[in-house]
## 1
Amino acid sequence: MTPADPVFDTALSRAFGLRLPVVAGGLMWLADAEYVAACARAGILGFITAASFPDPKDLKAEIARCRDLAEGRPFGVNVSMLPKLVPGERTEEIFALIAEAGVSVVETSGRNPEPWLPMLKEAGITVLHKVPSVRYAVKAQAVGVDMVSIVGAECGGHPGMDLVGTFVNMALAEQRLSIPFLIGGGVGTGGQIVAALANGAAGVVIGTRLLVADEIPAHEGYKQALVAANERDTVLTMASVRNTIRTLRNETTEVVARLEREDPEIGIEALMPHVAGRIGRRAYETGDVSHGMLSAGQALGLTRARAPLAGIVAQLEREACAALARLRPTPCPSDRTYEVDA
Ligand SMILES: Cc1cc2nc3c(=O)[nH]c(=O)nc-3n(C[C@H](O)[C@H](O)[C@H](O)COP(=O)(O)O)c2cc1C
């Protein structure tokens, strides 16, 4: 697809005709048709989160609604394959539904997508697999995904167990990958987008910075809490069950952190009454953020005001152009031949 007005020419913007090489990653309970279509219209690539629609009929209807709202621009579906979110048998059914609905790209996460790659390729669907660390990206490349997103320790949601930072991921990805890769985790300014592109990325994946968009289907109180929060207001918990998650600090995270401290072998059953998804969902509906595991990353320090999604994207674009202008390219000296890496 030819980009209407691309600001940067990358493998991502070329593949989907994007104005900015930005993916708005799946957001449980929040990435619905309105939000994802707003992303499409703003010239970035959004993903409806399949796990938010337990009944496949509802997911099908949401895809149709998004198509109506997206003004012919591409969008995708996020399929988080964590067993507790989408049991194995349902993953297959969901991919079949997505193929039938004519969706051309999926963002997969949570598990190796290898078993489903033949059916997705057969359907002509681009697979953008999201991983929390470069070593998994290398593996995803080996099994044949089309693109990978690597999200660092700063990210909202699941940063994995390695907790490598985004800046290091950026450099390692450039050295170790040959397929197009996206960088995420803490990205919230256009300058960071330029930094990722300068390190060889085809784009970035963003979650947290976009949570204060008007089109995010959540209560005003929730968005105001995010605006008021800063980069120090998130915590990592759930490492004891090997499912580390970065969320907004609140009463629930205090309790969960204490329980894990007191009994490192506590197990998911004992934590479930606190971390169940329905509690977080209630916070989105009521605006009371004191309870629930509310995924959010360190980019909370960059969410200064709520705004229409198109306004946030325009700001990212302005910042990216300003960052480029700051670089004022000068020829690099050619006489520095000292080699440290054989
Ligand atoms: C509220 C929230 C919900 C999320 N839900 C999902 C999800 O259901 N599936 C998924 O693959 N990633 C999910 N993520 C991760 C994002 O798609 C994205 O990878 C991440 O937010 C990028 O890091 P950032 O938050 O620092 O921008 C979620 C993130 C947030 C903040």
## 2
Amino acid sequence: MRVLITGGSGFVGQRLCRRLKEAGHRLLVVSREPEQVRDRLPEGSDIRRSVLDFVDTPPDAIVNLAGESIAARRWSDDQKKRLIDSRVNITGDLVMLCEQLQASQGRMPRLMVSASAMGYYGDQGDREVTEQTPPHDEFAHRLCKRWEDTAREAADFGVRVALLRIGLVLDAGGGSLQKMLPPFKLGLGGRFGDGKQFMPWIHREDLVGAILFLLERDDLEGPFNASAPHPVTNAEFTRTLAKQLGRPALMPVPAIALETAFGEMSRLLLTGADMRPTRLLEAGFEFRFPTLEKALSDILG
Ligand SMILES: NC(=O)c1ccc[n+]([C@@H]2O[C@H](COP(=O)([O-])OP(=O)(O)OC[C@H]3O[C@@H](n4cnc5c(N)ncnc54)[C@H](OP(=O)(O)O)[C@@H]3O)[C@@H](O)[C@H]2O)c1
């Protein structure tokens, strides 16, 4: 199968590309810097600067992962625009690619798996959250909704669209865990605020597994919560990580300090949702790392 991947050079994309290549698929990757990312991608990857550069090489499936990191910098109005544009514009290009392929009666992609995030639901307190739960209106929700709504437009061209509302992706060598490890290794880790906010998480291997699962299952579409079946609160996450590292975690960070340092972006650390992967489990997806203990012992062990 020819698979077109945006964000293939990223933390999730690199692992996905490796697994797709191992499974014998051909990789078409969109990157803003094709030459700079070449050595992060499997040999033979066809890397081009824009989605629409692939109109002469129609993919059988699309995986859409591109986007400016949500925690790159404080959420000023300009930064909010950058977070939205970096996702919605490239997603719109994918829809345009489908439109152009249909117009030229070319081969059509069967499926688009498009990333979204747990932020879709906004702050949900301690309510259990499935794909049916109404969202709380705030910036993260509005960002994810525009991203998802744009991706859904591909369905107008007969493409099956699956949306992955992704939790915190854990693995070595990148993502949030890499930023958390230094203070925890020094015994300076601690919960954020009162620690009661939920932190849905997923091992990177399971996220890639879920994408491959959706690529193969012709009967699945719509939103899927992509997080492990056993989410934890921030306090539990802190305790489990400290225990794995054999260090104390006695340095709670007061909410006010995070609010002062990060402004509105502190909501990423101080609010959350008890998100459950209801639809993936119903579809028969099996998590290799269902509990945080298992995931962290794999990653840190
Ligand atoms: N990692 C997580 O914990 C997590 C949690 C929830 C949701 N997600 C979502 O899942 C997707 C993949 O996550 P990830 O951790 O692999 O992401 P990542 O490593 O931060 O980046 C993905 C790719 O997006 C492209 N990109 C970055 N900034 C961009 C910009 N300003 N404009 C256009 N493209 C840009 C880059 O590709 P090039 O430089 O090659 O163009 C980058 O390699 C993202 O959309 C993310 O929002 C991730």
